[in-house]
Each structure stands twice: as structure tokens, then as C-alpha cells.
Write a structure and sequence with these properties.
The complex is a heterodimer of chains A (335) and B (563). In chain A, 35% of the residues lie in helices and 19% in strands. Chain A is built from 8 helices and 14 strands. In chain A, the strands form 5 sheets. Chain A has a 5-stranded mixed beta sheet. Chain A has a 3-stranded mixed beta sheet with strand order 4-10-9. A two-stranded antiparallel ribbon of chain A has the order 6-7. In chain A, a hairpin with a 2-residue loop joins strand 1 (121-128) and strand 2 (131-136). By secondary structure, chain B is mostly helical. Classes of the chains: A alpha+beta (335), B mainly alpha (563). Chains A and B meet through helix 1, helix 2, helix 3 and strand 9 of A and helix 3, helix 7, helix 8, helix 9 and helix 10 of B.
Chain lengths: 335, 563
């Protein structure tokens, strides 16, 4: 992680946060986020300068020309304008705008038009109401809500290029420490890239109002060393393991409406409407980051998704207690 | 007589006691049937104040919900309705109607006219607008009870496609949103045409365009902008209804439509709309700052030019709301530049106001206090606007609480502060009584403190990754304390507004008598009685300069020598 350096990080720590949960734009961990922050400091310096100058003059005027003594009825001298002065204070802002614009334009092109290197990883992101799907076309795998990407470095650049699609309404992919946001728009594929330079877990979330549970559409990005990433990929490539001890739970899954929406590879189910459950237990959270992925939460979620996320599109399945225990036991084996 | 000339039948000859049924009916009748620009101006203003309170209550509910992590004060459905209605109310029912309240009341008086150009259109515009406002609030009742599921609109005041498509927005809430705003749009366009016609055709003798009070100039510019921008909004709303009921595919992405078409239509309206709201605020500051500095406005022609510059540039900046939708880098750069350019004329205006105050004798009565705070706040709002025009930074901060803080700095820090200034300034003209100055100062300081606690702090969660439109957040995100401070600031503002509302009513009955010209001002409205009689002027006034009352009061050093 990047060392905590700035005032707002101190503010974040003051309210008792660990470094990972704070998605501050001032703690960048990826090339585009670093570039944006550098530009931001430049812009902040210019605007702070303008504020101090103009605000200072204004404050001076207020104190210097405040009327003292009520009986003074004489009017001050009337000044109707001054062409020279007005030209001067028009030209100076024009020059500031020119400088600011040229700097901005250069950064736009540098970030937006960066061509992917051969070593880049490609991921297709699909936004759903209210969860994320991450497809790795070259690796033949598929992740949900938690994006795993390899660590990149100057010596061994491994940027990740994201192709952004939407299955329903507009969403926006925003992990502040990795890059600025880009919208996911139906019928309009977008692209963005991250180049993570520090391992760790980075939090983000949907930044475009997308319906009832927009607030609970969180993203977790795991930046892993190449070895860890490869191990994760190997595991994800396996289909679900058959375990006879939980056959009853598997039958519940296969015989109920679960299969209309969910896929578990190895069972022949291919629902696409909800998240793929093949490696459910390899995820830290469920319900798009709403709660930790524990058997207890999982059972409560299946019993009634409204417990954690009242606008979730998953219906309560009205299972018996026995069925709930069985299916929770089965899902818990999906590593 | 323009108004109350036709008492209700049967009450004609009756000399009734003050509070008899007939007297009350006649009084009501005189307001409902009025075509007097002053009464309509008052109606617009009261309507705006009413919805300011309603929108404020919605804001408070939002702030209670966000005061701590995982709060359950509101359900997500209700929260989404409230933030949608808060935005819609404040923009369409408060901002737009305050403009026409002030414009209707003041422009004929300021330009020496006896009424607006089209008094009946004026009345029509108000009642149509009022109907639109009632209709959108009726959706709270109409949703579940009578017309199926839906209740109030819950798609955001920007109503992005395809969330508004039938597939994602069932029931009638989105229809209420579109229909009501189409209806208020009729009223807005009618009022704008009226303002333009009045200023072009009804000026008194000697009132050339370059002697027009800046208040009138800016409202003239705004009305032109309204005519250009309400059109695409109405078109988009009709297209949305066609999509929803006639199987059109404009925005319906599931049938090949485009979500971006909506964004273009909406922001071609929606960005200039910010200037539609802020220019009338400038207009108020343009009247108050010179009077309370005891100086002529510095650089009148430059102020006019800067306002027109803002109008034209504002039509070319809409896509800065769309830097994250994947436009080409060239488009992004273009809209970045055009947005930065707005900073030049607005900067000129701030410099001109400061220069007007320079060397003056500043009297800090309540209206001037609000205007002075406005100058500081608008400076900050402009600077955060410049920050957001820097596209890469916008990629980070777009749709975050930083943006919410920025535009509330404009909408509250600039516009609402100026509106309060204007209400204190012209209240004696409208009612014949001064507003209570002590209460006014309490209102000002409380509102100022509350405003800064709320909106200064609100920038920070945005930079810490908090997106807008979320009904809750986890404690681990580190936004809890900040949100609590923001909410507390919100409550302080609410208390201040209640003080103001009390002052408004109390002063009407018990306020100090004002006289014709309590502020020693310079424009024509201060030559009339307070309140002005019907038809305003006994004889048509004749003016020779921009400050006719200055000329009367300073015969030795009249303005026209310098123009």
C-alpha cells in the first residue's frame, strides 16, 4: 500500500478505518490514479492561488470600506468603470485557462488513448442490477463482485484492460484508488484500464444511480502477486467438486427455481440472470459486498434476501428449515 | 383595474364585515382571477417559498437517513423517491418560480411600465406552473392507492435512460415526473416570452437598453435561454412517454435505443438550467451591492457583455456531465475547454462586484450580508467548477459527493443566498413594512454557519469515494463522522430557514413601516408607494440615466453626465 501521507487519510484513520476500506483518491495505487492525483495537485494549487488572491481582496474591501458612524451622509466618489482594468482582469484568466486546458488535454489523451501492451490482461465487466460480473475471455474464467488482477510493475507491466458492458441499466465502475470511473451503458461498450502497482484489496462501488439497491453494488478488487493470481486462476478453472455428503443440498439447488438464474459448473445448470455460484466460497463477501460470506449469512440470504438487501432481485424461495440447511451445506463446499 | 374588477355576483352591494364569508370569498377571488403583475409576482414567490420548505423537509429526511452508517430511518425505496423529489422540487418548483416571482413583480416597476406585456398570459403561466407542481406531488398519493404501484418518482431528477423505461420503472411514477414537468414547462415558456416582450416593448421614455437596470438585463438574457433549453427537455419527456406507451425506441436500450440520446437532450437543457437559475441571482446582487456600497455599478457594459457571454457559452458545455460515458478524447477535451471558458465571464462579474464595493461606504444590512456571503461562496463554487472541468479529475469525482457539494455551493451558496437578499431587500416595497433586522441577522449567521458546516465538509466524502444517490453505507468506509457533521449543518440551516419564515409572517403584521425608499436606492420601483398602487405609476416616468433616483437626489452631480 501507498504510505498514508495526506490530511484526509489522517481524517480517515481518526474515524477508525483500516487502510484497505478507505477508497480515497488521495491514496492512489495504480498508474492512472497516480497521474490524476498529480494533475489534481496542480489544479488545486492554481485554484487555491486564485481563491487567496480574489478572496483576500474581497476580505480587504469588506473591512477597509465598512461604513463607520451613522451620521455620515456624504456619498463616496462614483466610479463607472475602467477599460484598462477590465481588460487586464479578462486577459489574466484567459491565460490561466490556456495553461490549465493544455495540461488537462495532455492528460486526457495520455490516459484515454493508452494502447494496451501485449502483456495486458483483458477482462469484460458486465454490470447488473445490483451486482458485477467479471469475465476473463483468455483464461476461460468468470468472477463475481470481486475482481482479481495481477500486480503490475515497471519491470513487468501487467495492466488490466476492462471492457465495460451492461445487462440492464446504466452503471459506473469506480475504484478510486485504481482509476477514475467509466460508465457501463447498455448497447454501448466502453473501455478503461488499471495498472495496479501495490498489492492489496481495493474497494469501489457503482457510481451511477441504477435503481433500488444502487447503494449496495460494491466492488472489491484484489491485486495479487503473479503467483497468487495464477493459483487463483487455476482454482477458478476447475468445475465444482462433487461431494456425496451434500447430495441432498445439491438436489434442492437443482430442483428449485435457483437454476433459472444461477450457474454451477459441473451440475449442468446454466442460468445467467444471477451470479455464477461455481466458486462461491472463494469470495469474501456475498450480495455484492453487502455482508461477509459466512454460512450463517448465506443461509439468512437464501431464506430471505431482503435481510441484507431489500431491493435485491433475488426472491425469497420459501424453503423449509431442512432444505435451507441442506443447500447451505452444499453451497459451502463450492470452494 | 386589472384585478378584482369583477366582484363575485351577489356580493356586489353588500358592505360586509371584514371577515364575513363574502369578504373572504371576494379576497380569494381577487387573487385567483388577478392579472396584475405584482399579485402574480407575490403568488409565484409564495409558491416558491412553500416548495422551498417542502424540498427542505425532504433534504432533512435524507440527512437523517445518512447521519450514521447502516441507518434504517428510511427504506431504500423511500430514500430514492425523496432524493428524486428533492432535486425535482428545488430546480423546477423553487428555483424556476423564484425567478419569475422576482421578475414579474419588479421588471415592470423597474422599467417604468404599468404591467407586463401580456397580463393574461402571465396569469395563465402561473396557474399552469402551479398545476404542474401539484401534479408531481399528487403522485405520492396517486401511486399506490388509485393507479397501481409506483408512487412518487424514484429515478433521480436527471431520470437517466434506460432506468425510466417501462421494463425498469413500472407503475406511473415516471409518467408523473415527465407529465408534470411538461406542464410546468408550458408555464415557464409563457413567462419567459412575457419577460422578453415586456423588456423589449414596455420600457418608459428614455429607458434605452443600455440604461436598463442590470436586474432586467439579466432576466432578459435568462428568458432567452429558457426558450432555447426548455424545448429539448420537453421533447425528451415526450419521447420518454412515447417510449413508455407507444412502443417508441428512442431510449429503450432493450429494443436498440440509446441511453446517450437522453443524456444529450437532458443536459442540453440541464446545464444551461444552472445559468437560468444563477443569472437571476446575479441580477439581485447587481441591484443590492451598488446600493449598499453607495456606488454606481462598476463596468455596466462589461456586466451586460459577461452575462450574454455566459448565456452563449452555457449552450456549449452540456457534455461536461458526460465525461465518464466514453466520449472520444477530442470531445472530452473540447467540452473541458468550453467549460473552463465559463470561468472568464463569471470571473469578470466577481471582479466587477468587488470593484463596485472598492472605495464605497458599505452598509451591512441583511440584504448586503447575504450578497457578501454570496460573493465568497460563488468564488469557491466557481473554483470547484473549474476543478470538475479538468476531465481526469472529473473521472474521479463525477457522481460523488464532491459534485453534490459543488452544485449545492452554486444552488444554495449563490442562488439561495441571493434570493434571501432579494426577499429582505424588496419586502418593504411589496408589503410596506420592513423585515425585522434582528431576526434577519440571526437568520443570516445561522444559515451561513449551517451552510459551511454542511457543504464545505461534504466535499471530503466525495474525495474519499462516496458516490451520490446511496441510501446507506458501511461503517468501514470511514464516511460516518463526516456525514454526521454534514447532517448537523443541515439542521442548522433548517432552523435558520424557519426563523426566516417566521420573520416573513411576523413582519407583515408588526414590522416597522417602510416608506417609499427605505434603502435610499436608485431604480424606479422606489419612486412608487409601498406597496405600489395598481398600474404602478400615475404618470409614465421619464429617465435620463441608469440611476433615475440618483439624479433626483443629486441634482448637482447627475449620472447622465458620465454615460
Amino acid at each position: 500500500m501507498v504510505a498514508a501521507t495526506s490530511w484526509h487519510e489522517a481524517a480517515g484513520q481518526a474515524v477508525g478505518q483500516g487502510p484497505l476500506a478507505r477508497p480515497s483518491i488521495f491514496a492512489p495505487a495504480s498508474t492512472p490514479a497516480h497521474s490524476i492525483l498529480a494533475l489534481s495537485y496542480f489544479v488545486l494549487a492554481i485554484t487555491a492561488g486564485i481563491f487567496l488572491t480574489v478572496g483576500g481582496v474581497l476580505a480587504y474591501v469588506i473591512f477597509r470600506y465598512r461604513q463607520r458612524g451613522k451620521d455620515d451622509t456624504e456619498e463616496p466618489p462614483q466610479i463607472y468603470g475602467s477599460t484598462q482594468v477590465e481588460i487586464a482582469w479578462t486577459v489574466v484568466p484567459v491565460l490561466i485557462v490556456v495553461v490549465l486546458f493544455l495540461t488537462t488535454a495532455r492528460m486526457i489523451f495520455a490516459i484515454q488513448d493508452a494502447a494496451p501492451p501485449k502483456s495486458a490482461l483483458n477482462v469484460t465487466v458486465v454490470g447488473h442490477q445490483y451486482w458485477w460480473e467479471f469475465n476473463y475471455p483468455e483464461l476461460g474464467i468468470h468472477a463475481v463482485n470481486e475482481l482479481h488482477v495481477p500486480l503490475s510493475s515497471a519491470k513487468d507491466p501487467k495492466p488490466t484492460y476492462l471492457k465495460l458492458l451492461s445487462a440492464d441499466v446504466m452503471h459506473s465502475f469506480w475504484v478510486p484508488q485504481l482509476a477514475g470511473k467509466t460508465d457501463l451503458i447498455p448497447n454501448h461498450p466502453n473501455e478503461m484500464w488499471v495498472d495496479p502497482l501495490a498489492p492489496g484489496m481495493y474497494v469501489g462501488q457503482c457510481a451511477q444511480f441504477c435503481g433500488v439497491e444502487h447503494a449496495k453494488m460494491l466492488i472489491r478488487v484484489y491485486v495479487q502477486s503473479p503467483e497468487d493470481f495464477d493459483a487463483w486462476v487455476k482454482n477458478q478453472q476447475q468445475p465444482a467438486v462433487e461431494d456425496d455428503s451434500v447430495a441432498a443440498g445439491r438436489r434442492v439447488y437443482e430442483s428449485q427455481a435457483c437454476v433459472n438464474c444461477h450457474t454451477i459448473r459441473g451440475t449442468g445448470t446454466t442460468g445467467r440472470f444471477g451470479p455464477d455460484l461455481t466458486h462461491l466460497m472463494s469470495r469474501d463477501t456475498i450480495a455484492a459486498g453487502a455482508v461477509p460470506n459466512t454460512p450463517k449469512n448465506l443461509r439468512a440470504w437464501i431464506e430471505n434476501p431482503d435481510t441484507f438487501k431489500s431491493g435485491s432481485l433475488m426472491p425469497a424461495m420459501h424453503l423449509t428449515d431442512e432444505q435451507l440447511d441442506q443447500i447451505t451445506a452444499y453451497l459451502s463446499t463450492l470452494k | 383595474m386589472a384585478d378584482s374588477s369583477l366582484p363575485i355576483p351577489g356580493a356586489l352591494e353588500v358592505t360586509s364585515p371584514r371577515y364575513s364569508q363574502a369578504a373572504i370569498l371576494q379576497w380569494l377571488n381577487s387573487w385567483v382571477t388577478t392579472v396584475d403583475h405584482k399579485k402574480l409576482g407575490i403568488l409565484y414567490t409564495l409558491y416558491a417559498i412553500f416548495f422551498l420548505l417542502v424540498g427542505g423537509v425532504e433534504a432533512m429526511a435524507i440527512r437523517i437517513q445518512l447521519i450514521r452508517p447502516n441507518n434504517t430511518f428510511l427504506s431504500p425505496e423511500v430514500f430514492n423517491r425523496l432524493f428524486t423529489m428533492h432535486g425535482t422540487t428545488m430546480v423546477f418548483l423553487v428555483g424556476m418560480t423564484f425567478i419569475f416571482g422576482f421578475a414579474n413583480y419588479l421588471i415592470p416597476l423597474m422599467i417604468g411600465a404599468r404591467d407586463m406585456a401580456f397580463p393574461r398570459l402571465n396569469a395563465f403561466s402561473f396557474w399552469v406552473t402551479a398545476f404542474g407542481g401539484l401534479m408531481i406531488y399528487y403522485s405520492f398519493i396517486g401511486g399506490y392507492g388509485l393507479f397501481g404501484d409506483g408512487s412518487a418518482p424514484d429515478v433521480g431528477w436527471f431520470a437517466y435512460a434506460p432506468l425510466t423505461a417501462k421494463a425498469f420503472s413500472r407503475g406511473h411514477s415516471t409518467d408523473f415526473w415527465a407529465l408534470s414537468l411538461i406542464v410546468t414547462g408550458f408555464g415557464t415558456v409563457g413567462a419567459a416570452i412575457n419577460v422578453i416582450a415586456t423588456i423589449l416593448c414596455m420600457r418608459c421614455k428614455g429607458m434605452t437598453m443600455m440604461r436598463l437596470p442590470l436586474f432586467a438585463w439579466l432576466n432578459f438574457a435568462v428568458s432567452g435561454l429558457i426558450l432555447v433549453t426548455i424545448t429539448p427537455l420537453t421533447a425528451a419527456q415526450i419521447m420518454l412517454l412515447v417510449d413508455r406507451y407507444l412502443g417508441g425506441h428512442f431510449f429503450d436500450t432493450q429494443s436498440g435505443g440509446s441511453a446517450m440520446i437522453w443524456m444529450h437532450f437532458f443536459w442540453i437543457f440541464g446545464h444551461p438550467e444552472v445559468y437560468v437559475l444563477v443569472l437571476p441571482a446575479f441580477a439581485i446582487a447587481n441591484e443590492i451591492i451598488p446600493v449598499f456600497s453607495r456606488k454606481a455599478i462598476f463596468g455596466y457594459p462589461a456586466m451586460v457583455a459577461a452575462s450574454m457571454g455566459i448565456v452563449f457559452i452555457s449552450l456549449g458545455v452540456w457534455a461536461h456531465h458526460m465525461f465518464t460515458i466514453g466520449m472520444t478524447s477530442v470531445s472530452n477535451a473540447f467540452f473541458s475547454l468550453s467549460t473552463m471558458l465559463v470561468g472568464i465571464p463569471t470571473g469578470m462579474k466577481i471582479f466587477n462586484w468587488v470593484a463596485t464595493m472598492w472605495g464605497g461606504k458599505l452598509r451591512f444590512a441583511t440584504p448586503m450580508l447575504f450578497c457578501t456571503a454570496f460573493l465568497f461562496q460563488f468564488l469557491i463554487a466557481g473554483l470547484t467548477g473549474i476543478m470538475l472541468s479538468v476531465v481526469p479529475w472529473n473521472w474521479q469525482l463525477h457522481n460523488s459527493y464532491f459534485v453534490i457539494a459543488h452544485f449545492h455551493y452554486v444552488l444554495v451558496g449563490a442562488i439561495v443566498f441571493c434570493i434571501f437578499a432579494g426577499l429582505y431587500y424588496w419586502y418593504p416595497k411589496v408589503t410596506g413594512r420592513m423585515m425585522n433586522e434582528t431576526l434577519g441577522k440571526w437568520h443570516f449567521w445561522l444559515f451561513l454557519i449551517g451552510f459551511h458546516i454542511t457543504f464545505d465538509i461534504m466535499h471530503i466524502p466525495g474525495m474519499l469515494g462516496m458516490p451520490r444517490s446511496i441510501y446507506t453505507y458501511e461503517a468501514s468506509r470511514g464516511w460516518g463522522t463526516l456525514n454526521m457533521i454534514v447532517s448537523i449543518g443541515g439542521f442548522i440551516q433548517a432552523i435558520a430557514v424557519l426563523l426566516f419564515a417566521f420573520n416573513l409572517v411576523w413582519s407583515y403584521f408588526y414590522g416597522e413601516k417602510a416608506g417609499n425608499d427605505p434603502w435610499d436606492a436608485w431604480t424606479l420601483e422606489w419612486t412608487t408607494a409601498s406597496p405600489p398602487p395598481a398600474y404602478n405609476f400615475e404618470d409614465d416616468p421619464v429617465v435620463r440615466s441608469r440611476r433615475p433616483l440618483w439624479d433626483l437626489k443629486h441634482t448637482e452631480d447627475t449620472d447622465w453626465k458620465y454615460e
